[in-house]
Amino acid sequence: MAPTRTRARRADAERSIALIVAAARSTLSCDPDATVDDIATAAGVGRMTVYGHFKTRPDLVEAALVDALRAGEETLSAVDLTGDPRDALSRLLASSWSLVSESAALLAAAEKVLPEGRIRDLHAGAADRIEALIRRGQDEGVFRTDLPLTWLVNVIQHVLHGAAEELRTGRLREAAVAEVVTRTVQSILAS
User: Fold this and answer.
1) E strand residue ranges, 39-182
2) pLDDT tens, residue by residue, 24-77
3) Fewer CB within 10 Å: C terminus or N terminus of the chain?
4) How far apart are CA 27 and CA 105, in angstroms?
5) Residue 72 phi/psi, 5° resolution?
6) Taking a C-beta distance cutoff of 8 angstroms, is the pair 181, 93 a contact?
7) Residue 133 is part of a domain; what is its CATH number?
8) pLDDT at 16
9) What is the residue range of 79's domain?
10) What is the CA radius of gyration of the chain?
11) Residue 92 falls within a domain, yes or no?
12) How far apart are the C-alpha atoms of 115 and 95, rounded to whole Å?
């Protein structure tokens, strides 16, 4: 096969994969129980095309979660974490909660089909960012040190997921979420 034809086929495959992953991310974000057929339909491809790129539904769910986390990492890496750790945490939480809200159903889909350790591994970058910020705040004496750091990180993640659920069910207004999350977490971390 000619190199140009191989490159064209590879480029077509990459476009097809990107289309399928985007459709999976969107579809699973609306319905964590969406089937491969649902995702194929949303992508405008056949089921066999999906299976040609992803051997199993869990592989496709993981690819969608990885794509969402990559996009989230782009957003979170742009957050200014300098200055007072409390202010930096407020900025990080304001950016984080909406990402969590957008991907809550996708995470629910992943939790059904991926091992817990895998999900934790995929979230390591976000957890490391929060952990480093809390550690800095502890070193500067503005965040509590009487509880394990990993516990504090997990509590923050649960607060974010709880806020997303409250928003989804209408018990919390979107305009209030960032402030509620920030005040809750700041009160948990206060030294």
Assistant:
1) none
2) 999 999 999 999 999 999 999 999 999 999 999 999 999 999 999 999 889 899
3) N
4) 9
5) -65, -40
6) yes
7) 1.10.357.10
8) 93
9) 57-189
10) 19
11) yes
12) 27
Provide the whole-model pTM. Answer: 0.79
In a domain, 163, yes or no: yes
- Find where tokens 């059904």 sit: 112
- Domains contained in the chain, number: 1
**DSSP bridge partners of 143:** 190
pLDDT digits (tens, 9 = 90+) for 137-185: 999 999 999 999 999 999 998 898 888 888 878 899 988 988 999 999 9
Decide if 82 is inside a domain.
yes
Q: Is 51 exposed, middle or buried (0-12, 13-18, 19+ CB in 10 A)?
A: middle
In the DSSP assignment, the letter for residue 33 is T
Domain membership of residue 51 (yes or no) is: no
- Give the amino acid at 179: E
Q: Are 24 and 64 in contact (CB under 8 A)?
A: yes
